[in-house]
User: Fold these one by one.
Assistant:
Number 1:
Amino acid sequence: MQLLGVGEESCERHGAVSEPVVTAMAVGALQRAQASFALSISGIAGPEGGTEQKPVGMVCIGLADSGGVTARTSISPAIAR
């Protein structure tokens, strides 16, 4: 996370699998790579490690470009099987 400039506080407060963290990851990658856009992904693949709030199959995706940054969360119940 240090490479992308994501603060420890953000990870501790929201967890690595969260929209605030993938947002920071995408912005950090965009700035450090001097790219046109950057994509970040974090998720819980399982088979263990999920919680009620963040189940196995949860994926957060961040996308940053010169126009801004956006993040989305998706949960795929099929992965949890």
Number 2:
Amino acid sequence: MTSSLGALLADVRLSPEGAGEERVAAAEQEMDCKLPADLKHLLAEHDGGEGTLGSRKRPIQLWPLERIRAECEAQEVTRAVPGLALFGSDGGSEGYGWLPRLKTGKYGRISLLAAGAHEFEPLGDSLEELLRALSEDR
């Protein structure tokens, strides 16, 4: 993990155990959605986490690999937005994900309640940019 990503995640209790590269690769082969490289790297080191971001203490849940796999198939929003990989939430109705078909702003947020592709709000081109945007309360 880079020092800047570590700083953004300072108030997030990351899982001390990682999913490992082999488990991440095996899970991704079984899922309908693919995962971005920076998220796979984080999952290999830390299989999820929960805490807050930024000075306003915005809640965040970074889901473990098994939940990402389950949500990829089960969420109405992932069925309504093909290719969307959800990997976290605010603990409520806002999901965080990666939509690879976009040219820019592939990382963003979307309502978990009856969402469509038009509701995906791009916030960055990397996991770090997404977390920075959330920590700045954008």
Number 3:
Amino acid sequence: MSGGEEIPDHLVRCNLSLVDDRHTLEPDLEEEELAAIGYVTAQWAHLEHAILASTFVLSSKNGVALPKDATNLSFEKRLDAWRITIERFVTDEKEKARLLKLVSKAANLSASRHKLAHGLWAWEYSDPATLKAFSFRPKVDFEAHFNAEGIRQLGKNRRTQFCALLPWREDGCLEIDGRAFASERRYLRS
């Protein structure tokens, strides 16, 4: 920070240990709100891996190396590598349109995901059901309002995108390189 800026107030929960120095600071959020944030974070990780897997499969099926940016730290660069790979190698126009629509949806959700994953969390004094994620870091400052249901819905949108990328079999399993994978724990328990 260059100086002169004010750091906004926000509430945190401070847990002081009576037996050792393991004190904790955590956002003043309810369990269901924290679970919703974790749900979206986990869904996004799966989406990112599905994008990498799709880029890898398209590249390897066409005998070319994985694009350099497919493993870049920047999500935007990885998404662009996937888009370029789709445009280059997917010949079925309907499938190409479907995949490019997923690229667009992921790009549109990226800003919300960034705010959700990297923001400091608080709730509005005037409406405690309204959560806000914010950052006062220079060049990336933001404030976004959420509620637990809206966050869960964001996760469901990502789950839908993730699922649309994967090669599902009729029995509910995934097939990758000729091997079947159970898609849910319940298949492994029966």
